[in-house]
Amino acid sequence: MRDLVLGIDLGTSGVGVVAQALDGSVAARADHPLQLHTPAPGWTEQDPDEWRQAAEGALREVAAEVGGERVAALALAGQMHGMVARDSAGRAVHRALLWNDQRTAREVEEIHARVGRERLVARTGNPAVTGFQLPKVLWLRRHHPEAFARVTRVMLPKDDLGLHLTGEAVAEPCDASGTSAYHLAERAWDTEVLAALDLDPGLWPRLVSSHAVTGGLRAEVAERVGLPADTPVVAGAGDNAAAATGLALGRAHPEVGSVSLGTSGVLQVPLAEPTPDPEGRVHLFAHADGAFLLLGVTLAAAGSLRWYRDTFAPGSSYAELVAEAARSPVGSNGVTFKPYLAGERTPHLRADLRGSFHGLSLATSHADVVRSVLEGVACSLRDALEVMTPLSRPERLLATGGGTVSDVWLGILADTLDLPLGRPVDDSGSPLEVGAAEGAAWLGWRALGHESERSPRADTWIEPSSERSAATESMYARYGALGTGAPEDRQ
């Protein structure tokens, strides 16, 4: 009878639970979907009580599957930046506003006006962003003052789920650092920022470490899901930090970063000290191991290829499209794609940017166009790396996400970023599960006293090509010279 830790990931599309053994193997997993509400363009909301129901459903399913083994702990991960506002009776006064909600432009301006943008970046590591939690709190106060007057607790998504599991209201540094209300150097809620906005710091929960046991599983929840009451629940981390933990990235291996090609693209680089980009062009968050993570984000990575397939090549597989792209040379015969299909995060921080193709001609082939999409995403990630480099430059990157199954796209990325890329594997050489739930489980093991000695590993490293270097640099220079397509770049 072995021990297991259950990692719980509260995502945007669903709640996932994995049962992980100490060697990293997964004994069971379950996913329960969530409904997304979009009451207006750019608005995204979810019912936090549905999070609780979905989590209990996934926990119940996993508990039944591993019934012959002992669940030693539960640990949390989840979508960052969201806001759950609850009253003294524990009721949500409004549906949760999510990380990709864009309604708070006015509140972002207010924060910068009252706190100062440079001051905010220096203290919290980031400028105010529409998706972050603090602007959402101001939005609730401005637009629903009666509801805001009843608020006694402001919670982040995974921490709100933890409140349900244990009855304890806590937060931890990884998620807290994505609120605009957390002082990175002091590792505490930023009372000066909150005071400048006339907000009570007491609305935010007490802070604990990412591997702290926050409480025991409440008896009524335990009975419904089929787990022992008082099973330890561990604070965990926001999804990006949890994924980095799963990859063994952090203080012990500052030379290794990661790049993810999911719907969005995320470049993560460990950093020993909380040193932000002075212009706030790249995110800086706390990491679960006590270090920090620089994050660069392009909003439409594999999402760009999906958009292209659905719009221009319905019925084609991704493998077919990438194979066709390989028939076009570096630089796509002069075609350049800007992947601003959903605006752009790093380094522009602008929701109004839009994607485009440049350099089309009668000689342009389908292969050129598809390759330009892959190269455009790689260039957008290079833009992020350029901002990170003065602060920290990794020696190599672990590559994750659906887009990285392609050697062609990995090769384009390796050439464009001028860094070796490899797909992660575990100590036995098997493909490594790198989701947020698995990373949370590793934090659970740490809370139980099992300090991790894992190292970042890859199957093979795809090296940047010296033969393609000049053509790749020319392609990236052309991408940069085109600017963003915004009016000020066309003058």
Please explain how this structure is put together.
This protein has two domains: 3-241, Nucleotidyltransferase, domain 5, CATH 3.30.420; 252-431 and 457-491, ATPase, nucleotide binding domain (Nucleotidyltransferase, domain 5), CATH 3.30.420.40. It is built from 17 helices and 23 strands. The protein has helices at residues 48-65, 105-115, 117-124, 133-143, 145-149, 157-166, 173-176, 191-196, 219-225, 239-246, 302-312, 318-325, 366-388, 407-417, 436-447, 469-481, 487-490, and strands at residues 3-10, 14-20, 26-33, 45-46, 70-78, 84-87, 96-97, 151-155, 170-171, 182-183, 188-189, 206-207, 213-216, 232-238, 256-261, 265-271, 283-286, 292-298, 336-338, 356-358, 396-400, 421-424, 458-462. The strands form seven sheets. The chain has a seven-stranded mixed beta sheet with strand order 17-18-16-15-21-22-23. The longest helix has 23 residues, at 366-388. The protein starts with a strand and ends with a helix. The model has no long low-confidence stretch (mean pLDDT 95).
Topology readout:
Layout: E1 3-10, E2 14-20, E3 26-33, E4 45-46, H1 48-65, E5 70-78, E6 84-87, E7 96-97, H2 105-115, H3 117-124, H4 133-143, H5 145-149, E8 151-155, H6 157-166, E9 170-171, H7 173-176, E10 182-183, E11 188-189, H8 191-196, E12 206-207, E13 213-216, H9 219-225, E14 232-238, H10 239-246, E15 256-261, E16 265-271, E17 283-286, E18 292-298, H11 302-312, H12 318-325, E19 336-338, E20 356-358, H13 366-388, E21 396-400, H14 407-417, E22 421-424, H15 436-447, E23 458-462, H16 469-481, H17 487-490
Parallel strand pairs: 1-5, 5-14, 9-12, 15-21, 21-22
Antiparallel strand pairs: 1-2, 2-3, 4-7, 6-8, 10-11, 13-14, 15-16, 16-18, 17-18, 19-20, 22-23
Helix pairs in contact: 1-6, 2-3, 2-4, 10-15, 11-13, 12-13, 13-14, 13-16
